[in-house]
Each structure stands twice: as C-alpha cells, then as structure tokens.
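Tokens for chain A. Residues wanted.
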C-alpha cells in the first residue's frame, strides 16, 4: 500500500510550525519540519509522511534551489544569503509541482493568516525588510490560490485564527481530511516545538497585531492581494470559533 504524502504550506509566521507539530503528534503521521531535500522519501513505518515548507522563501510552485547551490558549504551559503542572493529564491530542491507529480497520493494543507500579522512578525522576529515580508505574504496567496483552482490538487485551507481559537475543532477537520481518527494528543503539539514557548495554545495570538495597532494599509496598497486573501478565506474549511 503506497504511503500518502502530506505537504503543509503557508507564508512564514503564519502558523505552519504549530500546525505541523500538532499534526505530527498523530500516531499514523510522521512530519518533517522544513526539510529542503528528499528525506520525505526515506521515512518508513507510517502511512502518512509529511513536510512543512514556507512559501516562497523555502518552496515555490516551479522554481527550486539550483543544483550548484546545493553544493555550497554553510559559510558560502550564509554569505550569499546575507548579500540577498537567496532572498527570492526557494531553499528546497523540489518544487511544489514536483511534489504534486509524485506517484504516491499527495494531500496539501495550506494555512492563511492576516497580512498585517504575518508581515509584522516577519519583520520583527524574522529580521527581514518590510518589502521582503510583504512579498512573501503576497506570493504565498498567489500560490495557494493557484493550487485552489486546480482539480488535481487535494487541498485543505485553514485559517491561523481558527487554529489558535478553536484548536480541537480544527484538528478534527484536519483528521477528517487525512482520513484518520482524531487523537487528543494532537492538541499537545505546542509543547513539541521549541519556538512556541507558551504553556498552551494562546488564542490572543490571533489578534495580537490589532492590539499593537499594526496596519500596513494592505487593502489600499495591494488590492489584488487583499482580494485573493478574502477569496481564500471564503474557501477555507469552516471551523466554528
């Protein structure tokens, strides 16, 4: 019986790590966190194997890390990164379309988060420029929209706000999508990621940018991207909050 592949996608700082940790707590699922190579092909003993990658800095629709760049040592790679060479080039050696072309069944989960929250967090915690942060949020929407239009893509869209405000209901929806029974330990995923330091899932994270009065005027500056976001939110799995 072929194993099912799972790809978790979203903009940086959109909740991909928390979602991955929660899904990975399931007994039938093995999750990789930001593997840029082919490790997903080597995982055995689980019916579902997955990888989480952020769009577009880690994975793109068609582009991938050039073969010569994979031969660089860490020092040379970091030097090029600091000089901006990899700012808009994905880190992964496999594109999204290459994942989709695999002979094994593939399921994709995309997570959405308000642009003000994503951009603010990328700038503050990711130490990137506002231009880079804005580009990553906008490009993630373009790619998720493209995937949502394709009949050959088995896609589930989720909202970060629902994940932190209604985690159990959201994980039930994820389990159903993956054809697996819900397991309560999925709600303990926050404890198994080193960058999520809270003692539980904090629902206030969903509106932190509002409390901080963060507003990048995205609707005025990028109306097309805002429309894409709204359209994707409409398509997202309904989860009561």
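Reply:
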């Amino acid at each position: 019986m072929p194993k099912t592949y799972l790809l978790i996608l979203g903009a940086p700082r959109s909740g991909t790590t928390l979602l991955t940790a929660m899904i990975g707590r399931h007994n039938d699922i093995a999750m990789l966190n930001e593997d840029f190579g082919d490790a997903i092909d080597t995982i055995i003993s689980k019916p579902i194997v997955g990888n989480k990658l952020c769009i577009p800095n880690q994975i793109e629709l068609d582009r991938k890390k050039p073969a010569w760049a994979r031969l660089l040592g860490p020092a040379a790679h970091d030097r090029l990164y600091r000089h901006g060479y990899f700012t808009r080039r994905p880190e992964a050696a496999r594109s999204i379309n290459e994942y989709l072309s695999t002979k094994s069944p593939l399921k994709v989960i995309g997570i959405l988060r308000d642009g003000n929250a994503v951009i603010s967090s990328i700038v503050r915690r990711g130490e990137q420029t506002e231009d880079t942060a804005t580009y990553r949020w906008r490009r993630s929407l373009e790619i998720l929209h493209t995937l949502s239009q394709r009949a050959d893509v088995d896609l589930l869209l989720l909202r970060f706000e629902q994940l932190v405000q209604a985690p159990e209901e959201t994980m039930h929806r994820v389990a159903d999508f993956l054809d697996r029974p819900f397991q309560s330990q999925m709600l303990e995923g926050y404890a198994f990621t080193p960058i999520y330091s809270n003692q539980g899932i904090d629902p206030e994270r969903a509106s932190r940018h509002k409390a901080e009065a963060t507003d990048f005027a995205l609707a005025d500056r990028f109306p097309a991207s805002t429309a894409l976001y709204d359209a994707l939110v409409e398509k997202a799995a309904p989860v009561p909050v």
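The mean pLDDT is 88. The chain has ten helices and five strands.
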